[in-house]
Specification:
The complex is a heterodimer.
Chain A: E1 5-9, E2 15-20, E3 26-33, H1 47-54, H2 66-73, E4 77-82, E5 87-94, H3 98-110, H4 116-135, H5 138-150, H6 164-167, H7 172-182, E6 188-194, H8 198-208, E7 233-238, E8 246-253, H9 262-275, H10 281-289, E9 293-300, E10 308-316, H11 322-339, H12 343-360, H13 364-375, H14 381-392, H15 396-406, E11 412-418
Parallel strand pairs in A: 2-6, 7-11
Antiparallel strand pairs in A: 1-2, 3-5, 3-6, 4-5, 8-10, 8-11, 9-10
Chain B: E1 7-18, E2 21-33, E3 39-44, E4 50-58, H1 71-77, E5 82-83, E6 86-87, H2 88-98, E7 101-106, E8 110-118, H3 122-134, H4 140-157, H5 161-174, H6 187-191, H7 195-205, E9 211-217, H8 221-232, E10 253-258, E11 263-271, H9 280-291, H10 298-305, E12 313-319, E13 324-333, H11 337-354, H12 358-371, H13 379-391, H14 398-408, H15 411-421, E14 428-433, H16 438-443
Parallel strand pairs in B: 3-9, 10-14
Antiparallel strand pairs in B: 1-2, 2-3, 4-8, 4-9, 5-6, 7-8, 11-13, 11-14, 12-13
Helix pairs in contact in B: 1-7, 3-8, 9-12, 9-15, 10-11, 11-15
The chains are: A alpha+beta, B alpha+beta.
């Protein structure tokens, strides 16, 4: 994979990653900022995402909506997203339009210009977005509460979209404050994937991004960290719109750190061993053997700037209570800790991971995404290149050791999603 | 079985053209017929040692026997749950060992069966894949377990406003036709399904007379022919008869389904144009301008950009095999949804009356013709496009002619289709939520405002 990928840097500090794929005359152009919702100041939750919307609402050189219109006129598609640790803007277009994309993306990195009308309308749009993603979905409301319970001090406990009562007060000043602090070439990663050469990309990048001034006041990303969690936290989230109750357990867990990814690799494999599909330990025991759940899963978000979570979920079978399902899940994990990792299962999982790297070459956009996410989550290109070997070296014993460390009741949040008792079906 | 020699002819060596300048993308489609008589489209792409194989079986969930709603869907969900002496877990372990992936999905009119595999384990992967399609075990244990998963999904759907809206709309639109109900079935119908029902659904669905095939990747025409004859040769020649046309029964109006949730979900639409209608492509371009995928459509501009009434609003053509619709969807807070509906209604009427402008048509043509070649950017996406073209009765040359046909559309043509397709009086809104002030909005003259 490394022979497909080239990394470079502009004089103003903007990093450049080029991923070559010459099968189709297409290019994906992305700019990633090392700034996400967890970098917001207190009191303006949602401003990172609000600003992302506002970046489509005009600059000194472009009218509101013009950028998307120009992309469409060139046969391309564009979008953007905001996460806890990063914000990214991207276009997918014919490779010979790359320069135009860079010109417009560079323009909105420094020339944002907004009217009151755009602010007011776009604020209503993000509130409808919150309605759609969160307020209308009891599972999403429960996850929001669970994260708030997991993170007492870190901004990972605040939803990316924002708390509603703070979103309604978001204004131009808050958006521009975030923009001026974080939107600068020395806080950005340019990723170009597709039918391009590194030399061609660098030439265009110097032309369009090279003249942008770096922000000399950019601070290191040191965000408030979690205090030690010393007691398990539990909640029951009730909503009459719930038809299928379930249990989610999350534990605070270490993330992939630069130069130290071993533990994270073991945790990633642990999530596959416990919850990755039909043959995983939780499904073997809970779904096939005991028939107590209709679904069991495990997940681990290793790519994260600060402490992440390792989660387990069980969806009980009909007639099985949430308490029974949770107890069965705990017993299954305990049994796994006793029995250890099945070496054949680990071989299968590693073989699949290896193959997934071959399959990944068929989707250069997804590949570009994984590079962008990693590079804006505190990892370096060397860490990304080293990752396959780090994963390959993980042993059964490493996985158990990681499990013993992460499955600590005292760092857990257990959430039940259920319908209120008085409501009957 | 009658035997043929492998027939392969290069039907299209296609240089995608965009903006007058030829792009280098060359989609070299080979149309083959195997000795066993199976037709397939192939694009050889040896640069990555993988193959994407797409199979489509016409019929789909609409083949469910009377009273057996959900049988085809449950049957499809059981294909990877064991075969011969392999149970579900043994099958999954074997699949994992080969690092292959198989997907089985039921839709209204088709069953989609997909495989991705590494070239160097092709034999083993295809043997496993074959056993899942041809010789599924359908054990009672697996049936009960997967049934419980389907029932869990059905329970969740009952309180999902989007699902409620879709099911309400379909029920009103299609009367006694299978399209009126979900292919997942109901809790009652799924609970009653027996192993015999599943076996019957399998026999009805999988046959050589209804299969469409495409493959893209590191495989030759000869290898693909052998693979397909082994994979599909033992299927019966014919399956169950396909269902007939559905009448679109819904009248214009408004249906509110009360549901206690902060944001009302709205599904709207009326009858549409058949995929084979001569005006379909014009309708497609018209819809792109009206409510297409980008941020720049008329609906998006009026509802989101100008008024902030919703995060997204879209319209789309739904050409099913036996009915066609033009639909749209949007979601707004309960106290704003009446305004949103008023805007949509006004835009619908305005488009029917005035059509699109020359500038809008030009912009849509540039976008659609420019975006088309960008779809062909990976084995999986190309295989999907190729099998979809076969289902739509399109020839391999469509990849070349499609953009030319779009370029040739005139303003008069598109606006004639706007008058024919868009019927403001037939437009029906299904609203799921606690909408406020809807009656007032509906008595307002739809042309009075909201279009400026």
């Amino acid at each position: 994979m490394e022979d497909q990928v080239t990394i470079d840097k502009l004089d103003n500090g903007m990093e450049v990653v080029v991923i070559e794929d010459h099968r189709a005359p297409v290019v994906v152009h992305m700019v990633w900022y090392r700034a996400g919702s967890a970098d917001e100041k207190p009191g303006v939750s949602g401003v990172a995402h609000f600003l992302e919307h506002l970046l489509f609402q005009g600059t000194k050189n472009m009218a509101p909506g013009e950028l998307s219109r120009v992309v469409a006129e060139n046969g391309g598609t564009d979008n953007a997203f905001t996460s806890y640790d990063q914000t990214a803007y991207f276009q997918r277009v014919a490779a010979d339009r790359l320069g135009l994309m860079m010109q417009m993306e560079a323009d909105r990195m420094v020339n944002l210009q907004l009217g009151d009308e755009e602010i007011r309308t776009e604020r209503e749009v993000i509130i409808e977005e919150r309605n759609m993603r969160t307020e209308n979905d009891p599972g999403a409301l429960m996850r929001e509460q669970a994260r708030a319970a997991q993170y007492l001090n870190h901004r990972y406990g605040v939803p990316i979209i924002g708390w509603r009562h703070e979103m309604v007060g978001l204004d131009l000043e808050a958006a521009l404050d975030f923009y001026q602090t974080y939107y600068a070439p020395n806080n950005a990663v340019l990723i170009v994937a597709g039918d391009v050469t590194p030399e061609g990309v660098m030439e265009l990048a110097r032309e369009h991004y090279g003249a942008l001034p770096p922000n000399p006041d950019l601070e290191p990303r040191a965000r408030p960290q979690e205090p030690p969690q010393t007691a398990p936290r539990r909640m029951v989230f009730e909503d009459p719109r719930v038809s299928q109750p379930y249990v989610v357990r999350s534990y605070l867990a270490p993330e992939r750190d630069p130069g130290a990814q071993e533990k994270a690799a073991a945790l990633m494999l642990l999530s596959d061993v416990l919850g990755g599909g039909q043959t995983s330990v939780l499904n073997e025991i809970l779904q096939f053997e005991q028939k107590k759940v209709v679904y069991a899963g495990a997940s681990y978000g290793g790519v994260s700037l600060d402490d992440t979570t390792f989660s387990l979920v069980v969806v009980p079978a009909e007639g099985v209570s949430l308490q029974e399902a949770e107890d069965a899940m705990d017993a299954a994990v305990a049994r796994f800790m006793q029995d250890g990792v099945d070496p054949e299962q680990l071989i299968r999982i590693k073989r699949q991971i290896k193959a997934s790297r071959i399959y990944a070459r068929d989707n250069v956009e997804r590949l570009a995404n994984s590079y962008g996410r990693a590079l804006t989550s505190g990892l370096t290109i060397e860490d990304i290149f080293a990752w396959p070997d780090v994963v390959e070296a993980v042993t059964e014993e490493d996985i158990l050791a990681a499990a013993r460390e992460v499955f600590d009741d005292k760092t857990s949040v257990t959430s039940w999603l259920t319908r209120p008792k008085e409501v009957t079906q | 079985m009658k035997t043929f020699a492998l027939k392969t002819f290069v039907c299209a060596f296609i240089v995608l053209v965009w903006g007058g300048a030829p792009l280098r993308a060359e989609i070299n489609i080979q149309e083959i017929t195997t000795p066993g008589g199976i037709s397939a489209w192939l694009v050889e792409e040896p640069s990555i040692p993988i193959v994407a194989l797409e199979l489509r079986f016409k019929g789909g969930g609409s083949l469910d026997a009377p009273g057996k709603r959900g049988a085809t869907n449950l049957m499809t969900g059981l294909l990877e749950e064991g075969t011969g002496d392999m149970d579900a877990r043994a099958f999954a372990r074997a699949t994992e060992t080969l690092a292959a992936s198989f997907d089985y999905d039921t839709y209204d009119d088709t069953i989609a069966v997909s495989a991705k595999f590494l070239t160097d384990t092709q034999q083993e992967a295809m043997a496993l894949f074959r056993s899942s399609i041809i010789e599924p075990a359908f054990t009672q244990v697996a049936l009960d377990r997967v049934r419980a998963q389907v029932m869990s999904g059905l329970a969740s759907d009952e309180t999902d406003p989007n699902k409620i809206a879709g099911r309400t709309f379909d029920g009103m639109a299609f009367g006694d036709h299978p399209y009126a109900t979900s292919i997942d079935g109901t809790r009652e119908s799924v609970a009653a399904l027996t192993r015999a029902d599943i076996v019957a659904a399998h026999k009805a669905a999988f046959a050589r007379d209804r299969v469409y095939v495409s493959a893209v990747g590191d495989i030759s025409a000869e290898e693909l022919a052998t693979l397909l004859d082994t994979l599909l040769g033992d299927l019966p020649a014919t399956g169950a008869p396909l269902v007939g046309k559905a009448e679109f029964l819904m009248q214009g109006g408004l249906t509110v389904v009360p549901f206690d949730t902060p944001q009302s979900v709205v599904l709207f639409g009326h009858a549409g144009l058949d995929r084979h209608d001569d005006d379909f492509l014009a309708a497609y371009v018209l819809n792109e301008i009206f409510g297409g995928s980008g941020l720049t459509s008329r609906l998006m501009d009026e509802v989101r950009e100008k008024r902030g009434l919703a995060y997204g609003v879209y319209s789309y053509l739904v050409p099913k095999d036996n009915a066609a619709m033009m639909l749209g969807q949007v979601a707004s807070a309960n106290n704003r949804v009446a305004d949103t509906i008023e805007v949509v209604r006004a835009e619908w009427a305005k488009m029917a009356a005035e059509g699109v402008t020359a500038e809008e048509l030009e912009a849509a043509k540039t976008y659609l013709t420019g975006a088309y070649p960008l779809r062909f950017d990976g084995n999986g996406p190309i295989a999907n496009i190729l099998v979809g073209m076969q289902l739509d009765d399109l020839g391999t040359d469509y990849i070349v002619t499609r953009n030319e046909e779009i370029e040739a559309l005139t303003l008069e043509e598109v606006n004639r289709v706007a008058r024919k397709l868009l019927q403001p009086d037939a437009l029906h809104f299904v609203v799921v939520g606690q909408p406020e002030g809807l009656e007032t909005a509906l008595t307002t003259d739809p042309k009075a405002d909201a279009a400026h």
